[in-house]
Amino acid sequence: MEQNSIILVGTGHILERSVKEVEAVIDREEPDVVAVELCEDRYNALKGNVADFSIKDVIGGGNPFLILTHWLLAYVQRKMGAELGIEPGADMMAAIKKAEERGCEIALVDRPIQVTMQRFWKNMRFFEKLKMIFSIVFAITSIGSMGKDDTGKENKKLTIGGIGANKEIELDRITDDDVVTQLMEELREFSPGAATALLDERDAYIAGSLLELDQQTFKKSLTKNASQQTSEKFDQTASGEKRKIVAVVGAGHVAGIKNLLSHPELIPPKEELCSLPKRRVGINIKGVFAIGFIVAILIILLSLIYSGRPLQDILMVLPYWIVINGVLSAAGVVIARGHPLSVLTAFCASPFTSLSPFLAAGWFAGLAEAHFRKPTVEDAKSMLDVNSVGELMRNKLFKIVLVAALANVGSALGFWIGGSVVLHELGINMEDIWIGLKTLFL
After folding, report:
1. Inside any domain, residue 319
2. pTM attached to this predicted model
3. DSSP E strand stretches across 116-238
4. Is residue 279 a part of any domain in this protein?
5. Is the pLDDT of residue 231 over 50?
6. For residue range 15-28, what is the model confidence (pLDDT) as tens digits?
7. 320 contacts 418 by C-beta, under 8 angstroms
8. How far is CA 206 from CA 19, 174, 257, in A?
9. Cα(first)–Cα(last) distance of the chain, in Å?
């Protein structure tokens, strides 16, 4: 697709023919700029440059399920690429390599991946998140062969959807217009909010970046860089001819970007596209509900004490709370194959963290796992190079996040199950809880 001086090349990130097409277009068009659907972090990852990381930031700075989803999505893409005999992102690497060979300017035009994933996660409802994780795991096990075509070539497939709603997609046709349309419709049906973050907003960001490049005129002048090699310096303020831009983007973005390039007035400001929900000094709705629920229980317990109910009866139910919370959170760590002391940490932390909306058992279990099985930068580098689920489970960094996530799941279950058992043993029903909440807030 061509838009004035911008030439869009729609690719499949796991298709060898996309690599050849990218190289052919760059050779034919001889562009001044090669724009790629990458942000700085993804560019560095493709180049094999992984920055140092903090385990505290990994566990406490974001939702562990968000991190797991990101890694699992990347793992699915890598597995599809392995089926076709090509590395994921080979189309982008081909564009970068060809641009370097020809001395073209390289432009990273995609939105930062951290922003995209956080907005993607925020835009999904709770059950959509659960369905997303299930669908990813299902996809991992569904990649396989569809049989051979008339030429004897083995066709590979990906099954999308899940139990009762399966659709097979031929991997080699993943850039075909009808298949792209089907995949986009599936995502929008699955979660309109997720589709907005992954597709529409990125279309707008990329289109805005391309228009910024397109509006820059250049003036070639020979200069010497620090290594005394000749290079071309672009003067963005000087008058001159427009640069020719070849933009390499995923096939699913082509239609949206094309439309926005034709109607730039529809493109929101980048500040809006990159904004993240700020943490308020106050308490969010979930926090208010959790605190209200806990305070209501305390009010009821105090009422029982002052009504003459023996304190011993109340203390007798505490073991139920401790054991149920501790066992369920510890079970999550066991499922994640965490260190025995991480299991113990989850057991000890959960009965207390369940009472606070500001703490999570997974934080403590994850930090314990990181202490006893310290991950390295190599674990981060090899995260997406694994070829099986078993290898992924042996990766220390992945296991830390999995431990944190499943410990939190167990702790959340423990809160509701343990709370229900305690209330039942005390002879209190949920109507008393609601009365307590109304007394507190109304």
Report:
1. yes
2. 0.67
3. 144-148, 154-160, 167-170, 220-224, 230-234
4. no
5. no
6. 778 889 999 999 99
7. yes
8. 20, 21, 7
9. 60
